[in-house]
Inverse folding.
């Protein structure tokens, strides 16, 4: 065991980049050994260090993940952690992870499908569709969502999500006075620096446009709205042409050491000149929904309401995004309730 690996494993507030750069062959062998040792309490943390050292398909992380998957009686939670780290390899991880998606162990299969939705491309979609389990349980539902994400990323139809109707929408009550205000600003250089350290696979292969990035603060949370550069340059027209993984919303860790994806921003045409917008958690849970009708799109800008979808812990918001080729702005009341509620917004009576 080497001192440098010991120090990296003991770190609680991020990885010291200078220490990481100083690692030598002995350190690398130590990290690989710990990741493979069944009795090492730091093996999952060691996998994370390997992902930072060399994320290539021939690197130490890929070697260790391959060995772990080949174990005759693997620990499912260690395998799940390894599959999660494999996302740093990007699309090169697909063959390895795809095999694990067929595992009879739900923990392993679930982790595999979540990684596939991060990094798989349209080239794998047909094969994954044929091997995906039916929806109806946690693995099948995750697989169905993964197929949708992969298709949306490629702009392919046939895997569209179900829009949220009024019965699934929750709103801030008219007499509610306990609210947080949602503030926006231009991201700082520190934001950009932290985001630049996130591997493409962990950003779902979204390539953020720096000029259109938006920092969002609500209560103690800091988020970054990151729109894919290819999508942004044609907004909102790109939302009318087919499904898209328009971007991701990342959240800053409590210690301010890194950003990770909180929501996926998925859009698809409504067939009548408008488009749907759904913000989903990585587990497929629908969190926020908006619909821009054709009458809400004018002169290169679409403006629409964004609403909370009913779910455990749902927190209603009052927000009106506007999107164009310059990015996204947030208007309306820009409020969020301080407490979760279960009341739904009742549909208006037909006139």
């Amino acid at each position: 065991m080497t001192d440098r690996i010991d120090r990296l494993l003991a770190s609680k507030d991020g990885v010291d980049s200078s220490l990481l750069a100083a690692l030598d062959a002995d350190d690398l062998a130590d990290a690989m050994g710990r990741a493979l040792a069944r009795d090492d309490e730091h093996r999952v943390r060691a996998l994370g260090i390997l992902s930072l050292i060399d994320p290539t398909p021939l690197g130490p992380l890929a070697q260790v993940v391959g060995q772990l998957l080949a174990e005759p009686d693997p620990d499912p939670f260690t395998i799940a952690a390894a599959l999660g780290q494999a996302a740093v390899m990007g699309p090169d991880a697909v063959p390895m992870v795809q095999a694990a998606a067929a595992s009879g162990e739900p923990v392993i299969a679930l982790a595999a499908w979540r990684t596939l939705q991060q990094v798989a491309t349209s080239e794998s979609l047909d094969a994954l569709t044929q091997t995906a389990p039916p929806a109806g349980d946690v693995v099948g539902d995750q697989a169905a969502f993964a197929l949708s994400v992969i298709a949306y990323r490629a702009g392919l139809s046939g895997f569209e999500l179900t829009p949220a109707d009024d019965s699934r929408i929750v709103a801030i009550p008219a007499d509610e006075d306990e609210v947080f205000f949602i503030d926006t600003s231009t991201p700082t250089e520190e934001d950009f620096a932290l985001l630049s350290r996130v591997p493409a696979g962990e950003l779902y292969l979204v390539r953020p446009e720096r000029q259109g990035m938006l920092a969002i603060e609500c209560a103690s949370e800091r988020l970054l709205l990151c729109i894919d550069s290819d999508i942004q340059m044609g907004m909102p027209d790109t939302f009318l042409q087919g499904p898209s993984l328009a971007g991701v919303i990342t959240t800053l860790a409590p210690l301010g050491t890194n950003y990770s994806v909180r929501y996926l921003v998925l859009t698809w045409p409504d067939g009548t000149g408008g488009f749907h917008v759904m913000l989903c958690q990585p587990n497929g849970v629908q969190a926020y929904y908006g619909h821009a009708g054709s009458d809400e799109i004018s002169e290169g800008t679409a403006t629409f309401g964004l609403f909370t979808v009913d779910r455990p812990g749902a927190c209603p918001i009052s927000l009106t995004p506007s999107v164009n080729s310059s990015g996204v702005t947030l208007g309306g009341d820009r409020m969020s309730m301080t407490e979760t509620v279960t009341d739904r917004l009742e549909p208006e009576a037909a006139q």
In short: The radius of gyration is 21 Å.
